[in-house]
Specification:
- The complex is a heterodimer.
- By secondary structure, chain A is of the alpha/beta class.
- Chain A has a domain of 151 residues: Glutaconate Coenzyme A-transferase (3-Layer(aba) Sandwich), CATH 3.40.1080.
- In chain A, 21% of the residues lie in helices and 26% in strands.
- In chain A, strands 1, 2, 3, 4, 8, 9, 10 and 11 form an eight-stranded mixed β-sheet that branches. Chain A has a three-stranded antiparallel β-sheet with strand order 5-7-6.
- Chain A starts with 8 loop residues before the first helix and ends in an 8-residue tail after the last strand.
- Chain B has one domain: Glutaconate Coenzyme A-transferase (3-Layer(aba) Sandwich).
- In chain B, strand 11 and strand 12 form a beta hairpin.
- The two termini of chain B are 23 Å apart.
- The chains are: A alpha/beta, B alpha/beta.
Amino acid sequence: MINKIAASPAAALADVPDGATILIGGFGNAGMPAELIDALIAQGAKELTVVSNNAGNGDTGLAALIAAKRVRRILCSFPRQVDSWHFDRAWHAGEIELELVPQGTLAERIRAGGAGIGAFYTPTAFGTRLAEGKETRRIGDRDYVLEYPIRGDYALIAADRADRWGNLTYRKTARNFGPVMAMAARVTVAQVREVVELGAIDPEHVVTPGIFVHRVVRVDRLRKAA
Amino acid sequence: MKRLDRNQMAARVARDIPEGAYVNLGIGLPTLVANHIPKDREVILHSENGVLGIGPRPAPGEEDPDLIDAGKNPVTLRPGGAFFHHADSFAMIRGGHIDICILGAFQVSQTGDLANWHTGEPDAIPAVGGAMDLVSGAKQVFVMMEHLTKKGESKIVPRCTYPLTGLRCVTRIYTDLAVIDVHRHGLQLVEILAEGLSFEELQRLTGVPLGFRAAA
């Protein structure tokens, strides 16, 4: 019997090695898998490369991972925010390397990683500093920049409901990067609000099919202001 | 001369958004535009974090941390709204499905180059978000900004000195003084907004030629 439900966040992340590339879902704190990140901090893996839209908000989730000095390199689109003080300090101290990626390019590079695409041309960032040194090509009447896929060793995402096959639904704008990150990692771990019986999720409503999900952990989340 | 305040600017931009338009509002000043779209005009607001059909701000106590806009502020969803993941959201943007995006700016050049993501200071942490995707894909790119810097320099310039967000991407500029269209051959004044401002004075403040168009 297939059963992807893990006993705890700790059990789901026990094998993360130092130096791993980790895709972390969320847009700000919506969709941020905070309980999985807490477990990752406790687990102790270090020298991580993190791919996430932001570089942490406040003192929890990704911000806490950065504060614990576990992140060597981060790929993100919008690190600088009013509440990104842990990243700001680490960046100014030279402790963390930043690769800034336009948000749509970040999403598409991850999607390409999951979809087996070798590289793609995008018009985004042509003629700007973020395309410097990159291959470009004129196709028709537009200029494009060549971008390469991103794959993760692990993806940590937050979803709403799951079954034991790993089929997922999400909640509102907490969906954001979850579905594409789930596709692009060797091991995708989803924390969910609720685990339901196989068949209880209407197949028409499955957002991430279980083929992309390897481990599921149910967490009790307290609703708190974003 | 009487400059427009931020809400007057937002109201002027809102006048140009037609029924049925799919619109992305950038963070900051452009978010005010939503407050000025008439209730009987159906305009569908998109936010790059995966939502179409954003409604008004929630009442205090009704905020849902899973329902936010690109500025990470709590929002509501209108009947008919939809959620989708980030790659689909940027397919809407890059694929030319968004009719209008409205962004703030540090500078706009006379050929429509936009600088709005980085001041160029070496110690500043860079952050770009979705701006480069939006300007590359939206059918129309409106910029909304004060006409002059705090030092009184024109933000409409011959060439941007700040790092670029996109080349030749801005289609129209709304400032606290005027509405200006960006054409292939240069800028064209659409409307003076500041009361008591003459074309000559606007031209003197702007620093790049504004092909004057007589009142239509």
